[in-house]
Amino acid sequence: MNGAYLVNPSDEPDSIFAAKINMPQDSALRVYRVSFLAPQTYAMRLEVGNFNTLDKTYDVFGDEVYFIKYNRKDSVEAPNSSRHFITFLTHEAFHYYMQNQWSDGSRFTGELSENDIDLMAEEYDALAGIQAELLRDSPSRETLLGYADAYVRAVEQRLEANPEYVQSELSMETVEGTAQYVGIRASRIVGYDYGVMYFDNTSNVSIAEVIPMFRSGGIDESFLSDRMPYETGALLCCLLDAVGAQGWQERLNAQTLENTTTLHAVVKEYLAGV
Question: Source organism's superkingdom (predicted)?
Answer without folding.
Answer: Bacteria
